[in-house]
Amino acid sequence: MSITIKSAEDVGKMREACQAAASVLDFIAPHVKPGVTTGELDRLCLEYMTDELKVKSATIGYAPPGYPPFTGAICTSVNHQVCHGIPGDKVLKNGDSLNIDVTIIKDGWHGDTSRMFFAGEPSILARRLAQVTYECMWLGIEQVRPGAHLGDIGHAIQKHAEAHGYSVVREFCGHGIGQVFHEDPQVLHYGKPGTGIELLTGMIFTVEPMINAGRREIRELADGWTIVTRDHSLSAQWEHTVVVTDTGYETLTVSPGMPAPPSFVAAKAA
Question: CB of 169 within 8 A of CB of 176?
Answer without folding.
Answer: no
